[in-house]
Amino acid sequence: MITDNLEWLSRLSSLKSLRIGSTDFTKASNWLQVIQSHPSLSVLVLEECDFAEVDPSSLSRFNSSNSLAVLSLTSGFSLHPSTFPLLLNISSNLVQLDLSSNNLSGSIPDSFENMPALEFIKFYNNRLEGGIPKSMGNLCSLQALDMRFNNLSEPLTVTLEKLSGCAKDSLEILALAFNDLYGSMPSFVPFSSLTILELQNNRLSGRVQDNFGNFSELTFLNLAGNRFTGPLPDLSRLSWLRNLYLASNQLEGPFPVSIGKMSQLVLLDVSSNALNGVISEAHLFNLSQLRLLFISFNSLSLNLSSDWIPPFQLDYIEMRSCELGPQFPGWLRRQTNFSHLDISHSKISDAIPYWFWNLPSRLMYLNLSFNNISGSVPNLPLKLDYIPVIDLRSNLFYGPIPQFFSNSTVLDLSNNMFCGPLSFLCTKTDNLLGYLDLSNNLLSGSIPDCWMTYRLLTVINLENNNLSGIIPNSVGSLALLESLRLRNTSLYGELPQSLENCRGLKLLDLGENKLTGIIPPWLGERLKSLIALCLRSNGFHGNIPSTLCRQQFLQILDLSLNNLSGTIPSCLNNLTAMAHLRSLQATVHSSYPYADADFTGSFTSNIWMMGTYDDHLLVIWKGLEQEYGKTLGLLKIIDLSSNQLSGEIPEEIASLQGLITLNLSRNMLRGSIIRGIGQLQRLESLDLSTNSLSGEIPKSMVDLSFLSVLDLSNNNLSGKIPLSTQLQSFNGSSYSGNPGLCGAPLSKCPGDEITRPPNNGGSESSTDRDEELFEPLWFFTGMAAGFVIGFWGVLGTLLLNRSWRHRYFGFLSKLGEWICLTMALKMAKLQRRL
């Protein structure tokens, strides 16, 4: 909606409350003047509106509104910075002021004395800088101050001192999180009425003092995401504290017994610190109200007896990387109401008890990964209220996969010993699964043809199983699919054309199967988002389609170990991502949806979130098979080896300056190595072996300074190997099988030896030979003697003169390098003569 002016508002003289959203006021230059002069308006809420710049001369110098008590201008797109100070002079009776999410910048005007009745100030999510104005501390009725998500930068002690006027007795909520406040936590904070203190994600440091502050009413304390050090503080005097966040600091030492005295605690988060030692029943016996417990990413051990009955029923149990094993924690049997359970990386080496699978109906997240938990999962008729995330990867589970696992948003069972068919995937007609990883198991049978029911699926990984059959057509119905990995699953047949509908695919790995047919042109025409394409070790035949050259994001192209023929497409220089020296990102990400719930414990409905999956791919890197994940996006590889390709290497490949690995070996290529090979300055691995290449090695190869793997063997190359530190560092096997090649590291080329005229009919006397052998020895002896005499001749002076001493030893270092080089050359010459 667009409005030209607000004159109509002044005619509604009895109006007390006005709420407007998503309106364009940029043509209503008098908007603030009308508001200021309205006789009875007490509540004004304008959300997601655009505002015009205000002419200060059109306004009263003093706040003239006697009625306005609530002013909320939030999520505006163009609230002009000059308007900010004017709003602080709008009404002496203002009680609530909310200017959140308006992109306000600069310092906060020190003008709050004009609004003595203020109780609520919210400047959340702007770009305000500097510190809190001192006049805020004189607002004797101030109850809540929310400055989160700004750029405030000053010592915390200064901020608190500014607020220690009469506001210290009334302030109940102080939210300064996500700023740039720094310094230490004061030993005493004088806010007797404070109930909520949010200081998370600043740059606060030092120790948190025991029982700091006179916080008799404090219920919520968040100091997470700072740089606090030392032990966990004793906060047992904060008797009403319900939520305590100390995560992501540098706290160390044991888990204090004093925590157990905080009987009102509902949430405790000390994750991602350096805490150590043992948590026993004594630490937890009095926490009857506890519902959310986060102790992950510490070095803590839990010593709880299997028959212990906890005084609490937890909603969230986050104990990742703590030591709970080796036995499966028996105390979990009495936790019957949890929604989130993460005991991954917890050193459990035990069979999972049958009672565990009687899971709570409100389960939303289950993570037992990276343990040595064994046993099968019973096919129970579980009815869950929500659609959970289930992560059991990297354990010793075996047996068939139960049907209730299909009712998940994320299912990761990889690296186990699950067996049997994939029929559990076809038990529902409408599935909300977004991520599926069943790789590295013992699954058998064919891939089911029911993927049309998985409309949200973005990641599929079935690699390294005992599957067989064809790729089903219904895979093409996965319009959101970004990653498909079916490597080493004994698949056969041709690529289904329906796969061209998966236009969001970033990674397609079908390597090490028995697929046949041609590489279809639609791979390049339709799948325009591909970053990695691996079809290695199959039975594909025919030409490499030129449509692959249209892949502007492609960084990994592996078509090796097939039956491809014809020439290498000259259009490969159009692979834009390989031509760029830099990669857009180090990791290849795929996104997937999953269901979560309100973190506060309200599970009335699902909240859909987006997770991020770091793609992995097995590649041949410098002759070795390696899996890359976090750095996959840095690789730029073309591998066309072990095919039947013929013709010449296209010169256009030299344009791919970001290329790191080029493997064209074991083909039938002829002609010469491209002259511009030296332009591939990022190249680390080059394999052109076992072809029919001829001619000389281009001199430009000396520019490949990063080259660490080179194989030009078994060709028809000739001439002298160009001289460079790099090319001579490789073993002779890199050049073997080329009879016409010579020069280091192979044998010398004809003419490299300087022939000397024979003495006395072509024979040398033993005396002459001995003189030649001893000549270098006299040289080294004389040089060493001169060095020693010269050194001790100046030593006394150097000991007495500091500046001379520094200069001399700098010179001596360089002289030593020259001597070592000279000696090495002389010794090499001597050895050749011997």
UniProtKB/TrEMBL annotation:
<keyword id="KW-0812">Transmembrane</keyword>
<keyword id="KW-0418">Kinase</keyword>
<keyword id="KW-1133">Transmembrane helix</keyword>
<keyword id="KW-0325">Glycoprotein</keyword>
<comment type="similarity">
    <text>Belongs to the RLP family.</text>
</comment>
<dbReference type="GO" id="GO:0016301">
    <property type="term" value="F:kinase activity"/>
</dbReference>
<feature type="transmembrane region" description="Helical">
    <location>
        <begin position="777"/>
        <end position="800"/>
    </location>
</feature>
<dbReference type="Pfam" id="PF00560">
    <property type="entry name" value="LRR_1"/>
</dbReference>
<keyword id="KW-1003">Cell membrane</keyword>
<keyword id="KW-0433">Leucine-rich repeat</keyword>
<dbReference type="Pfam" id="PF13855">
    <property type="entry name" value="LRR_8"/>
</dbReference>
<dbReference type="InterPro" id="IPR001611">
    <property type="entry name" value="Leu-rich_rpt"/>
</dbReference>
<keyword id="KW-0732">Signal</keyword>
<keyword id="KW-0808">Transferase</keyword>
<dbReference type="GO" id="GO:0005886">
    <property type="term" value="C:plasma membrane"/>
</dbReference>
<keyword id="KW-0675">Receptor</keyword>
<dbReference type="InterPro" id="IPR032675">
    <property type="entry name" value="LRR_dom_sf"/>
</dbReference>
<keyword id="KW-0472">Membrane</keyword>
<keyword id="KW-0677">Repeat</keyword>
<protein>
    <submittedName>
        <fullName>Probable inactive leucine-rich repeat receptor kinase XIAO</fullName>
    </submittedName>
</protein>
<feature type="region of interest" description="Disordered">
    <location>
        <begin position="748"/>
        <end position="768"/>
    </location>
</feature>
<dbReference type="InterPro" id="IPR046956">
    <property type="entry name" value="RLP23-like"/>
</dbReference>
